[in-house]
Amino acid sequence: MEPTRQHDNKVFNSVVDYRTVAAFGGEAEQTKKYDIHLTKSCKFGINKGFGIGIGMGIFQVTTLGNYAFSLWYGVRLIRDGDAEPGDVASVFYMVMLGSVMVGQGAPCMEALAAARGVGYTIFNIIERNSAIDPSSAVGMKPEVIGDVEFRDIDFVYPSRPTVQILKDFSLKVPHGKRVALVGESGCGKSTVVKLISRFYDPQKGSVLLDGKNIKDINVSHLRSHIGVVNQEPILFSTTIAENIAYGREGVTQQEIEKAARAANAHNFISQFPKGYETQCGERGTQMSGGQKQRIAIARALVRNPKILLLDEATSALDFESEAIVQEALDRAGEGRTTIVIAHRLSTIRNADIIVVVKEGHMAETGTHEELMAIPNGIYKTLVRFQKAVDDKFYDEGDDAEDDEEEANERFQLEEVDGLFELGSFTCSSSVDGYTKTIVTEEGEAVKPMSFFKILKYNSPEFWYIVIGCLGSALYGSNPFVYGIAIGGMFEAFTYDPKISSEREKMEDISVKWSIVFFALGIGSGVGIFLQNWMFAKSGEALTQRLRKWSFVAVLRQEISYFDKPKNSTGALCSRLSTDVSAVQGATGSQLGFISSSSVSVIGGLLVCFVTSWKLSLVMTSFAPLMLLSGVFFMTALGASTRRNLEEDAGKVAEETLSNIQTVASLGREEEFFERKAKKICHFAGLATGSTLCIVNLTFAASFRYGATLVVDYDITLKDMMTTVFTYLSVGVVAGQTSSMTPDYSKAKIAAQKVFTFIDSVPSIDNQSEEGLKPEKCKGEIKLNEVGFRYPSRRKIKVLRNLNITVKPGQTVALVGTSGCGKSTTISLVERFYDVSSGSVTMDAHNVKDLNIKWLRHQIGIVSQEPVLFDMTIRENIAYGDTTREISDKEIEQAARSANIHQFIGSLPKGYDTMVGDKGTLISGGQKQRIAIARALIRDPKILLLDEATSALDTESEKVVQQALDNASVGRTTLVIAHRLSTIQHADCIVVIRRGRAVERGTHEQLLAMKRIYHALHKVQSMSQR
What we know:
This protein is of the alpha/beta class.
């Protein structure tokens, strides 16, 4: 199972981090790595087919060899007078039926073997006793006041036991007080928050709540009194109301709206057509960063917690919203113990206690005034860097035309997939896209693909299929040869052992047919071995090919494709696994089924009707009932319904496990378990019972009528037994074969879906070789009268006649409130989307006319939320340029430029350190600096910085900003920033409001205008007191 798990993980990571993959042109690199895992999976599948073939071949030889010996020995007993023919027939019949039942269960051995392998891992997880168990009822449940104390804490993460995070850390937080933790990235601030929530236990020391060690307090009870807002907000794929309601069980709509108002979220939520019932999308992708953060804050506030933990709770907000939200958080913190982690020191100026954390211990503590009085103190130095302070925010009014236009558009959204998409200017979100060939949607009628068209894709394995069909045909001859041999053996029962001549005939007949039985066992064993092995080779090769093609097709899609609910990460992984695997059942194995069944049915019917046409007609009359029972059986299994439910469950499981810290902090594990544990009832038991009932009724009628024919001398006992057992064997083998072959119609439908998807061509095709590839790139960018609407929301304008010119080597900064269109502008330059009107040009070439690979190779991007892959630091940095081999010297130089080399050098494995899935093993600031190094490694002509320093602490920000300034020299640079201090030296600053450029100029020019930019700047800076 491991190879399959590995390539599923590769799909998962590539889909989740697709923007990063697309930005750096990593499609080929991801495909190469995926193909390596597919090759391992293919070998695993072939070996499995070989093993099953050997096992079932030995089973056939053993079973039929046993029949040969048993019947020979039974005839000998009759001949010696030790048994009656009836007794031997009864015993043999019972043994044969038992063997048949075992034979019917043989195909299930594969499932049992797989279940054992998976079960070992699953039951280890189930039986594992967690040291921190939120489902346990053990522990005290005291009334919580809110006094928190850290006493002599030493802590290292279990995954990095050699890196000390906290050392002799001690801190007292009185109830009702607001304590702020500040310090550089990686100093241990976020670890403190995790220890309070008891995500980890310290190796030394203790965390106390109201004087009680939190290890002695019930975990669920502890977390129910804590509200958390993290640096990177996590929303679940459900409505806004349900996301907020996750904060507390049984919350009312009135309480939800009250919390949203307190978090400054109510107004933008009310603008959506469905208001609080608006879907947030997977991971909140339908919301801008600021909107996600405000919903997360509302979720924490609705909980009414005794302890409030704010880990960069306002980091994603624009300054227009930040002051209001900060005021709301200040009010929410009244009467509560509040612990704040902040890089923006303006947000914690009024904290009761400010603690400076350095290298895992408390370096300074006091109020703002006390810390500012320390000469050359760490805190004072940080404040000097930021010069941050709160002030009243000013903004100009909206023109009447825009107000009227937006009011009209707000409720004119198109309905997509039964849900209205969002109606807000959410610049950083992506929405549904459009492709030239529409990929088959769930719920639509799908026309099954032609068998021969499917077979064409399996043509490279032609000879494997031919040999497999020959093996199937050989195995298919088993039933009628078996029936003839049984009839011949029963002929011996009709002779009188007391007559010498007949006694010798009994001996000769028993030996003759015993040899036939044994030869039949060898023949059918070889046949079923070749059938399993050859079709495993052809099927796994086709599966590998289709999975690779499908993976390439996934990476080929536009960004907007992945924002559709049906194209969530879990659903895509499930489809790539189940649909592609199902196609096997419509190719070589289907030919094998046809070969085996044709030989069995045609040969069997010929033997039966030639031997006794009367008895054969009686048995054939039961065929319609057998057919109906088979249809009932297949319908009862509900394969397609089960697949859809499993896909939905996969979405829930993926979303839950990916965001387990958020789920745990909310204490909603049980609710997510209930979402996962959907059940479906099948009537398989009734269907199986009715099938067996009809089989036995057929037996009863056949033996009764056959006995009548024997008594009337119409047929002999040999003829009757040959007919009955041939008919029986044909049915058994056909049943076994069909049980080993996936549902044919399902496979053809799956094939249609897979090949339709593979053949689909998105309107922005990153695999296309078409388009201009200029020899040189100067780096001039122009957005000329750009209007933009997301494809699924054509009534909503995101950009309105936007004009921006960035000359070669010039640095242009975009500023404005959340949702104004800044990140959308970046996406248009990268050509993640195409403009609705106007044009985006590079060096006077419309980006639509440029080769997409060439275009993106000229651009280096650092996004607001850095995405790292589960690789080493070295590999993550080198990922910035997948077109060549990157030397260690270049990697180190890029790391130095991003101010991360020193940190990497301090790690035990240096550049070979694994960063974990999505970079979970390093801090946010460290992730951001590695992302910056990754952008610099490709030496781009154009640099796009979307809040590139937003996750950095103040101490690192200035150094990194200087490095980015140096990196911008000679490059066209487009910067998005909320912190205006980072873009003061830009050649031009463009203020965007509601999709328009309303102000532009240098820092000094815009300040002189005393309009929007002046107001933004005033909020952020003040004279040092």
